[in-house]
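Memo to structure team: turn this sequence into structure tokens by end of day. - J.P.
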Amino acid sequence: MIRLHRLLGVAAAALVASALGACAGDGPFAITATGTRELSADAPTSGVDLAVQVEMFNGPIEVRAGAPGRVVARVTTTGAAGSKDDAEADRLKIQVTLDASPDGSVRLKAVYQPNPTSPNNRTASAVVEVPPAAALDLRTSNGRVDVTGIGGAIEVHTSNGAVRLAGATAGALVRTSNKEVEIDGAGTLDVETSNAAILLGGTGVTVRAVTSNATIGFDGALSDEASSMRTSNENIYLFLPTGASFSLDASTSNAGITLDGFTIETTDPLGGDTLRGQVGTGGPSITLRTSNKVIEVRAR
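Reply from structure team:
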């Protein structure tokens, strides 16, 4: 991933602007009150597969590996009103629960009780430590999601928030919008965002990546399953091991396609805005689609 970042000139994105900024200014919600609560729960250590679900709103979620048999959370909530006392009273309307079930499910949830579906400028964010083998289901809005060192499958749903997953060795499904996604892992990486880059890497990876008006890049070794990368008005970069075998179906418009370090038996003429053919023998099928920008497939 580091080499991919250098080549693309993609710097680490700035943190998502805090939703607290939405509470600033004049009006009935000009004053905010923020507080933090710590919660913990025992989690099953044998006989079941542990699944941890986290639901926040208008704020980030960070998950990292902790001790086996224990989920520990630090949840920060913010209320808003016209005075400090009213803002604190408003914050206390955000209910935070952490529940563990014998079936192996653990759920951390924050809900603004007066309006659960539209909390507006209230916020709830979490830093959570979970057993390293846990599977994750993470949901928030207008906030980034960061996960490090978790061995189970990961599912992320957010909006207007960047997603970064390090060591996602059991695969990941990510849905966000208007912010970038970076994953280093294995298994199936199924990613959708909009107007922001997708940067992926790892070994034994199956890629399904969709964005718009932004770069897609992969640096690593693909599995034998079919992979696809689709964007518009931006480049696609693919770095694969020297000697890799794969079938390629690449298409762009008003730009070129580069194949560097591989020899391809084409079914269409080499060059131009379409390239289809076989590199080596066997391997995965790779579909690449963009418009008005280049596609580059290079050996490393």
